Fold each of these.
Amino acid sequence: MKKMILIIVLFSTIMVNAKIINSDFLSLKNRLFISTLSYSYIQEKSNSYIHIDMKFKSPIYANSGGISFSFPELKKKEYIKNIEYYGFDKLNILPRHSKVWHKKRHKNISSSYLLIEGWNSSKWNKTVVKSISFDIDCTKLNIKQFLTLQFRITLLKGKKKFYFPLEVNKVKDQQGFSIQKIHLNKFPRKSKHD
């Protein structure tokens, strides 16, 4: 009983000390992907962080596939905390200067900024919702307005490749892939999509 009371008191203390500065929920989809992304800027005493939660599924079966998040303003993997994922074989956090594949050059290059990649090499079941959540430690970051998040999804089915966003999107990441760019706004305002 004493343990239960202690847990309740600790949880209540955490909730009192933590303040959500801003949060948003986004629905992103095309004919092949259905995705939701939510984020919250949270201030807790002298610490601050962004909590990101993304879920997605596809109405098609695929042999393999994955998701990539990148952050042009971040270089070190130490910024990423409390990462959890479901539906992936592995998840890699790659800091600046990691070897990453470039689509158009057909070779590895040295990355310029932080990249998170989740990959599943077994068959994708179209009924399964895959998810990734993590925190970005912003305590030592001087974020005045927003932090930029870039993400993309790739599915492989035989020799066919399916992307979100579509490859016609002119906004590219450091690897030459089309990406969805989102501004994670620090203060309440309408989210920007590029």
Note: The domain at 21-185 is CATH 2.60.40 (Immunoglobulin-like).
Amino acid sequence: MFSDHIILKNKKINITIFLIFLTFAIRVPVILAYGDSSLDHEWKHLVGNLILHGQLVYENIDGYLLPNLWMPPLYAYYIYIFSFLGLENENFIFLILLSQALLAAVSVIVFYKISEIFFSKKISVYSSLIFSLFPLHIYSSSQISSINLQVPLILLFIYFFFMIEKSRKNISILIFSLLAGLNILLRVEFQAIFIFSITYLYIFFKIPIKKIFLIIFITLITVSPYLIRNYIIFEKITLAKTFGYNLWKGNHPHAMKNSLVEGSELFDENLKKKSAKIIGGFIILESIPRDINYRFEFNNFFLEQTKKNIKKEPINYLIFYFKKAASFILVDIKSSDPDYYNPLHYLPVLLFGITSLAGVALSNKKSRGFNFLILIFFSYVFIFSFVSILPRYKLIILPLQLLFTNVLFRLIGEKYFQSKNRYK
């Protein structure tokens, strides 16, 4: 019996090593061929200002360094850490991309461990291979994007959610809470996912209320340095002020009328009245004073514009909301990305979108653990359907879709072996 345990343990180690090696190795040539060569867009400004000024600044407006409230800080600091190695630009970027390949390997291993909670080792290995070799997952490692940090952090959060339910040890609670804080510092909408998760722990897994408050406390401690920084600067407790803009972009009249899931930033008359301009890749509203409250006023303006747009055509915007939800789960039929309709991208995205819905329908509804995965999946769909949905966001729900597809794999396997045994 002891020798069987050793053999089983060695098999697990071998599977882990294989998945790590495969995931990392397959990404290196993609990084060399297609990888970003410099920081662009928001990361260029955020990281550049951290290096030059030691401040997390998104915009330099007429020489005024406007403290960042545009992006949550975690990925910017992740990139910034690599600057301490003193590498030249290309080597600096290459090292970041290699680290993202390692993060992808971590994601695959954690995905495998989550899958093993519900499925056999065989199904878990196959689905982990699909996740490792999924074209969008491979390609993302070659791009400077926070999605590469978001995927492993979400999966680790889910894994330790189940570890709390299984062992209820304080170490699992500590790690789970730290991961919750890091996810919030990476994506603001994760606050909702966190609330849903701890509510689920309390109601369905009967985790004592004292431990729920402990989770909340540790999570607040994790995000508190950034909250304190913002309170000192802005005299407000906030993580970011982009909701109004993101809502406007995702519900722009042009986007709604043309079913553009990725949103639109076309200027209308109201924007022109605000002397809106695009300067250095930013939308600047020149009628708003360039002071510490600029980002708040900017956000409020776009939030009010969105409310006005939706009030004019509420039914059409509701229909558009469901179109975005369907596109997020399945495939976007009107993407502006020229590479989106490469068969290597849209065919697997569409296939596993369909199989995942079948898996949800066929899943055991008495499984509290699996129902939690379904809750998280539809929570993300619900949240992102309010705003614009970029192609890379698919990676947020892809691991869950593959887990749902495992249900289908298992049922097909069971029926195949039953029919095979019947004809023996």
Note: The mean pLDDT is 92.
Amino acid sequence: MFAVGGNVTLTAPRSYTALAGDLLVMFAADDDTVLSNTDWYIDVVESRDSGHLSPLTTVDIPGGYSDGEVIIGCGVVDVAGQLLVRLVDSTTSDIVAQSSVVDVAWPSVTLRLPVSVTALSDDVRVTLSVAGSVCQSRQSRVYYTLQLVYLGVNASTARKSVVYEQTLATLASPSSSPLVVSCSFIDRSGSYQAVLTSSRRSDVPVAVSNVLVVSWSARYSLTLSPLSTCRRHFVVRHTQPRCPDVFYTVRLFVRHPHTYYHDDDSRVHGGSDVTRLTSRDWRYVSERRVKSSRTSVTFDCALLERDDTTTSELCALLASTASDESQHVQRRFCASQRRPGQSLLHFFLTSLLYSEIVESKTAREGMGCRNDQPARLLDKRRVCLLWGHKWYDL
């Protein structure tokens, strides 16, 4: 590839690989004209800087030659893109000759991730390999950045976020330990991808890996100790994958009987989903942060004494929190509770026969009852069964 300016021809290669060898530029004057009494130099600029040219390097051309070769050393051109090689008159800053565009590619660099792993369970090994030998950049303060990018649940969506980042001083295959991303950074299910960029030009990646698919682990469990015998503490037992520096949240909610059976647009028979943390059916009770190495946490029974004569449903959630502050419920466990001193018949009828406890003073003897009457707490209680709408003393 060449270009002619006046009586001088400038020749540069059509393509070039950054950091992979010297760049050879040739110049020649027509008719064996000797370049005497000239103050010319050759420079190399990035074509995208047109209008704001800052040469990567300059090489003076001594007088007395009609042709010659100029070697641009390996490492001067250290980024992919497009280049122009120019012959410039330093006295006037006129461009005497200019090459056509030189296409510059990155050296052959491969990034590889596992095909799939489990979230918050498995470390991710990143394989970085550079084909052949490459030289180091001759530009100042150049470094490379390895990023692990979360692509979202669907890899084709535009939602992307960097979850892990590591700086590399040179572009070379690791000679000792492999690059490992801790399981604590793999905190959501979905798709991930590794990207390697240069500080010289981050918009043109050096390499991009395959897509890693991450799924949630099946090794979660959650149970509650019996609440009917609760005197001082009750225990929430949980299991989860172990991963250093990872914390989970055990969160408690209580739902009372009158929220079970109202059949309107905001509630569903059998109970709305406690995983919807804003649901008005549920009263927040308490929560604890637990390490992934823990297997149980205790709560005071006093937390459940807000309505100590009613039957209620207690639900525990085991949730993880991702780096973007999103919460992911891994397990839910719910249990109806009978408090100490509550008759077994009362517990059975109110829990299993879909009843409501109401104040007996509000109902006259022989009067029918409805399942939408409000629940109140009194010393004497009666139960209104859904079938027949009859009052029964407990």
Note: Residues 363 and 369 are 8 Å apart (CA to CA).
